[in-house]
Amino acid sequence: MALVRRSLRFAVACAALGFGGTSALAKTLVYCSEGSPENFTPAINITGTSFDASRPLFNQLVEFERGSTKVIPGLAEKWDITDGGKTITFMLRRGVKFHSGVNNFTPTRDFNADDVLFSFNRQWKDDHPYHKVSGGKYDYFADMDMAKLLESIEKVDDYTVRMKLKEPTAPIVANLAMDFSTIQSAEYADTLMKAGKPEQFDQIPVGTGPFQFVAYQKDAVIRFKAFDKYWNGKPQIDDLVYAITPDPTARLAKLKKGECHVMIAPRPADLEEIKKDTSLTLFSQPGLNIAYWALNNQKKPFDDKRVRQAFNMAIDKASIIRDVYLGAGQAAINLIPPTIWSYNSTVKDYPYDPEKAKALLKEAGVTTPLEIDLWYMPVQRPYNPNAKRIAEMMQADLAKLGINAKLVTYEWGEYRKRMQQGEHMTGQLGWTGDNGDPDNFFFLRGCAATRPGGQNLTKWCNKEFDDRLVKARALSDPAERTKLYEEMQAIMKEDAPDMTIAHSVVFEPVRAEVVNYKISPFGRHQFFGVDLK
Amino acid sequence: MLKYLARRLALTLPTFFALMFVTFIAIRLVPGDPVEVRTGERGIEPERLAQFRHELGLDQPVWKQFLDYVGHLMTGDFGTSVVTNEKVLKEFFALFPATIELSMAAMLLAVSIGIPAGVLAAVKRGSSFDHVVMGASVTGFSMPIFWWGLLLIMLVSERWGLTPVSGRIDLIKYYFEPVTGFMLIDSVLSGQSGAFTSALHHLVLPSIVLGTIPLAIIARMTRSSMLEVLNEDYVRTARAKGLSPFRVIGLHALRNAMIPVVTIIGLQIGTLMAGAVLTETIFSWPGVGKWLIEAIGRRDYPALQGGIMLISSIVILVNLGVDLLYGTINPRIRHGR
User: DSSP states of A413-425 as a string?
Assistant: First the structure.
């Protein structure tokens, strides 16, 4: 710490003497983030803000390639899937160092299998010494059904870990690239436990990542410095600073003034101004999400495919994208966004055609006026800026066909619960992807999820679709899985269990001097590999 | 005096209890609880929901939860944040210096401009200066803080480049560990040249924004109070004695006119705390106001209850202090006589 302070002082002195500023000596990248992390252990966190704060510090066994959803080796150099997809053996990378000097901890050994076992067992085993530390809520481990999928995790030797699964589940490899699967130091954990300060484990982090923790002041700043012994090479920037700036207008003002180099979440109203500013570059990408309008297939008249198709044609989707998303949205043709592998670009969306919709309804024997309900969420979501406005636009479109849609909403928790019970006739919701695997979206239309309380809000159970969904889970070859998922998208569009509304578009402005920044489909912020001119 | 103090302190007890009760009930009337707010589209398995609610004591009847809460509070235990698992007291006092620093700067600004402006306006009653001051104070008083803050950022920082946008210090140039939590003091202690100036620069805009409403109120109050006093016989006598206008106004009139102004200043502590919630959010100021806003969003019951109780206690105590101060200013109402 003292060393950092001295070197900073030196840098400041040099800057004052006109030696070309601090950048010539120490490259400092400032990221204007939106909030404070809960702590620095991703396994017990749920927000993107917290994950971003831990990301510079850690690695996972496998990781997402920066800027894509592709899974690449991380702390595991390679892995074999055997036993019909029920066993995954990870060969761990050798010579990986943990950060030294943080919280007076000096590691005595390199990363090995013990760290992997520690990181998963803490979340999985109730009797693990760290299970109850810091509240002991492992939301993602539970949400990704890890406890239901895992049979065992064993250490074969120091550099080999074997994971046995209860049933073949290919998407689990993508789960292991998620933040909750972060690998932490078992030795550091032991040291703190012996010292009677286990909660510090989650507050003063030690990892294997490209940057080492320096300091955190709640609601103000997080400081990191480059880890020169990083297994993948030293980062190009020396100091990484997260300036916590909750207001988006203030963030943009800071970015423009050069007080930060990268910012999260600009206001849609500011996008035009950002595009005009030559000192900034605006990155954009469809988010890993979907907003949809579920038609309850178990309720009349939505048990008839023609009615569902007619509803798809009755709504002017382009107007919704234009007026509600204000340009920050892309019309969704499939359930998965185009950034996810296996996206079927040959699928065509239903056109906006009220006349044809009318004819289809007539053919299905639906008489008007028809009374339906249309549920909308009471809250703004990343994929849907204004569900009520969308509902009103849909209501107006439906009225033209003689359909009277009654708008319904409940408190957010109650809303989800009632929709999962299938109380609605039609209703909006959406999904934000977790791991970039197609299964992470398609399970939302699987038969298993149609049970009351399940996630399939269309209550649509199509055997052709579901057989492929289950089959794809057991396959490890991406090419074979791609084929099945492409077919599923075609089946889904034809059978129209819902209307896919939009994928919101994520925007990220960065300063022009930032080199090699990549926007992530997950909305992650990663600074390893980024440089400053 | 001591008897008075004891009586006043005893009188604050029902206020504390009412506060405790209202805060406790109000936050529970807001839809959604800390567990539900954590869950996204996926929802949560009923068993896990029940388990979490049990751990947080939310499965108990509300009256029992309240009694438990009061019981803990009596022993000085404000609970643990549901979000960060940190003790509420520890979090509060880590952030509180930033709020005090900002509030004091804002109050200093308000008093040092508000009182002279009010006095001058009263002395020059009906002049164009008087109209300008009164017009400006009405505008200042009715200014929405959020809008005012953003406007100043856009003009002063972005367009004219006179001040930094937000934060407490230049993060690229300076780094030191907090000692007192007051950036102005810590920057001096750090020994880094330029750090204090940077901290001071960062304080300018937020204190203007936070100080605007108190400034407007203080200026108006000073003016009307001065006008009243200036018509008093003793002022006329002082003038008749041939005292200089400075002595008449500064010594005889102002001292008496200050009594209602001091009351108002005391009451402004509440306004400052309320204003801090917005000002801290706009200027990324790591104080308790911003912390409370987040606690509401995440339904962090312990943090919210504890934070409101602590802030209210401070407001009540400051007002008590102001009451005691009257005696110093005006010996006629010295307590215990």
Answer: HHHHHHHHHT--S
Which of A29, A258, A277, A23 minimizes the C-alpha distance to B157?
A: A258
Residue-level pLDDT at A25 = 67
Facing residues of A515 across strands? A531
Query: Which of B165, B168, B292 best tests the A interface by mutation, with the highest count of A CBs <10 A?
Result: B165
Spatial CB neighbours of B126, under 8 Å, sequence gap ≥ 6:
none
Quick one: closest CA in A to B33, which residue?
A413
Query: Any CB–CB contact under 8 A between A217 and chain B?
Result: yes
Residues B172, A22: C-beta atoms closer than 8 Å = yes
Which residues of chain B neighbour A5 with C-beta distances below 8 Å? Answer: 175-176
Residue B213's CB: how many other CB atoms inside 10 A? 23
Question: Among residues A504, A432, A434, which one has the least CA distance to residue A143?
Answer: A434
* DSSP assignment letter at A215: E
Q: Which of A22, A221, A429 sits opposite B173 (nearest CB)?
A: A22
ipTM of the complex: 0.89
Percent of chain B with pLDDT over 70: 98
- Please tell me the distance in Å from B148's CA to the nearest CA on chain A: 13
Of B41, B153, B173, the CB nearest to A431: B41
* pLDDT tens track for A243-285: 999 999 999 999 999 999 999 989 888 999 999 999 999 999 8
Please give the distance of CA A183 from its chain centroid, rounded to a whole number: 18
Is B171 within 8 Å of A455 when comparing Cβ atoms?
A: no
Name the phi and psi angles at A107, rounded to 5: -65, 140
List pLDDT tens digits, range A118-140: 999 999 999 999 999 998 889 88
Q: Which residue blocks in B39-174 are alpha helix, DSSP H?
A: 46-55, 62-74, 88-123, 128-141, 145-152
Contacts of B161 in chain A (CB under 8 A): 257
Q: How far apart are CA B68 and CA B78, in angstroms?
A: 11
Distance in Å, alpha carbon of B216 to nearest chain A alpha carbon: 26
Window 406-445 of A: residues touching B by CB (8 A cutoff) are: 411-414, 416-417, 420, 429-432
Q: Quick one: DSSP state of residue A442?
A: H
Contact check, Cβ <8 Å, B41/A12: no
Percentage of residues of chain B with pLDDT beyond 90:
49
Q: Is A243 on the interface with B (CB under 8 A)?
A: yes
Calculate the CA A301 to chain-centre distance. Answer: 35
Say yes or no for a CB contact (<8 Å) between B294 and A39.
Answer: no
Tokens standing for residue B305: 């209850």
pLDDT at site A73: 96
First-to-final CA distance of chain A: 27
Distance, CA of A32 to CA of A271 (rounded, Å): 17
Tokens of A84: 């019909």
Angle (CA) A109 A110 A111, round 5°: 125
* Residue B167: both structure tokens together: 């934060």
